[in-house]
Specification:
The protein is α+β, with helices and mostly antiparallel strands. The chain has six helices and eight strands, in the order αββαβααβαββββα. Strands 2-1-4 form a three-stranded antiparallel beta sheet.
């Protein structure tokens, strides 16, 4: 089982550290979404200000790893780092079957820097911390940060959207 947890992105160790709210997202509520375009998984550029003219959910996670690749042991020790696949799959599973939305890539941190989203360093590389935003008419309405456990994020966001 230990080997599976070290390589299977769907399995999370029971002893993951719980992230604490460090205040790094307090400034986001009521912030306007910038007019930045990011490349999507369908290969098109998506302008975030235009895309968020209605009600939209943006969720952020540190990294996507390929199944079967070794997950560094110290990655599990970073509060909130582990769980990218369970988080994204929990959003997908609310729709069933395939992803009904495109994923956007902010690898050059343009959106992250513009909104001053929280990041952390690991092995000399910068990663975004896990969070989710509800946006209405181009303005950040609700911030979910820190997110834990990651696989429950979609459920919590949907409860908020339903008014519970």
């Amino acid at each position: 089982m230990k080997q599976a947890i070290d390589t299977d992105p769907y399995l999370l160790p029971a002893d993951l550290p719980v992230p604490v709210d460090d205040g790094a997202c307090r400034h986001l509520r009521a912030t306007k979404v910038p007019s930045i375009s990011l490349r999507s998984t369908s290969g098109r550029d998506v302008n975030l200000a235009s895309a968020s003219s209605g009600r939209m959910v943006f969720f952020f996670y540190p990294e996507t790893r390929k199944p079967g690749t070794q997950i560094p042991k110290t990655w599990n020790e970073i509060p909130g780092a582990r769980g990218c696949t369970p988080q994204s799959c929990s959003f997908r599973d609310r729709y069933r079957n395939n992803l009904p939305y495109e994923l956007l890539n902010d690898s050059d941190f343009r959106l992250t820097n513009e909104l001053r989203l929280p990041t952390f360093k690991f092995e000399s590389k910068t990663f975004i911390k896990r969070l989710a935003l509800v946006i209405r008419r181009g303005i950040i309405e609700k911030v979910f940060y820190p997110v834990f456990p990651p696989e429950k994020n979609a459920e919590v966001v949907l409860e908020y959207l339903r008014g519970k």
